[in-house]
Amino acid sequence: MDARFLDIAEQLLLIEGELRTQGWWDDVPPSAEALSSVEPFSVDKLDFHQWLQWVFLVKMKQILEQDLPLPNASGILEMAEMVYADRPQESLGLRDALKKFDQLIVDAR
């Protein structure tokens, strides 16, 4: 098991918590069509918070649970900064959690 798994699991919980705190957590999943997007961050079919909840968190949890290799790179913070440029204070906690996630991935290089 990768030594970062526990730290990453903690960051995923913090990301989920921030989504819930801001009211960006959905109880109903998007359609199968929306979830099948092949665009980066599913920008053609999902809002960024939906992508975080229904794609990113799900995939990262599968990686941890199945002891699969972690990604080689992560640039999620950059996307969050673009998406939430007009809401810097509101998104501060989420962006901080995503920054720490990105750093955990980069630290393995």
TrEMBL record:
Name of the protein in its database record: YqcC family protein
State a single Pfam family of this protein: DUF446
Q: List, for all copies, the residue spans of the domain called YqcC-like.
A: 8-104
